[in-house]
Specification:
Length: 228
């Protein structure tokens, strides 16, 4: 029973260690000429991963400008009018990060942007110093548990699950973007077809009037033709 409790504590400790990393996902709408910023605290030695993608441009281009800066105002990354990008940065000091998405170059179209932010620290000792889960075990129980093997297996499972979730999020954003692109193309095709139909009707009407005026001697159009 004691062995089972310690094993459960080991699994729980690894799970809690896994959720210590910060992971956020947002889908935002940036108005024409607008600029939205987000703020997040981070510590030295932590790694920041941010991925963004424009999934809808409101009948305009799928592009956005992006900036990442620290609390001192130093610019870390800057993109201008890109549809998507991925940035990874390891912090050297504690700071408050600023993430800004700018649509200031567009005065007509709003932009829908999906982005994912992950902030995680180094995993040198696996965080086991915070858990006294091995205290009280006999040497036989300690070696039977193969703590390091269990820890490695759980970490791999956790990392694989995290990557699978991130991959699914990316697939969902790609699917939303492709759907919006298809709907935009459908809108453009229908609009262009409508104008073509209007032009064809106008040209047909003008042709009927012109042919009819050739045989109608009393019409004003016939008099214009005879003068020409």
């Amino acid at each position: 029973m004691n062995f089972t409790l310690h094993l459960f504590a080991l699994l729980l400790a690894t799970f809690l260690q896994g959720i210590a990393a910060l992971q956020k996902e947002f889908t935002i709408v940036i108005t024409p000429g607008g600029r939205d910023c987000f703020y997040e605290n981070a510590q030295a030695s932590q790694t920041v991963d941010i991925e963004y993608q424009v999934i809808d441009g409101s009948h305009g281009d799928l592009d956005i400008s992006f900036e990442l800066a620290d609390s001192s105002g130093r610019l870390i990354f800057a993109d201008y009018k890109k549809s998507d990008n991925i940035h990874r940065y390891k912090l050297t000091h504690d700071t408050e990060l600023t993430f800004c998405f700018s649509n200031e170059f567009s005065r007509v179209n709003s932009k829908t942007v999906f982005f994912e932010l992950i902030i995680e620290g180094e995993d040198e000792d696996g965080g086991w110093s915070n858990f006294d889960i091995l205290e009280g075990l006999s040497p036989e129980e300690f070696y039977d548990m193969k703590v390091q093997d269990v820890q490695d297996i759980i970490k791999r499972v956790r990392n694989n699950l995290t990557k699978a979730r991130q991959f699914q999020d990316v697939l969902r954003s790609h699917e939303a973007r492709d759907r919006n692109v298809a709907e935009e193309n459908y809108f453009k095709v229908n609009t262009w077809s409508f104008f073509q139909i209007i032009i064809m009707l106008c040209v047909g009407f003008c042709q009927v009037v012109m042919v009819k005026s050739l045989f109608d001697t009393e019409s004003k159009a016939h008099k214009i033709w005879t003068k020409m």
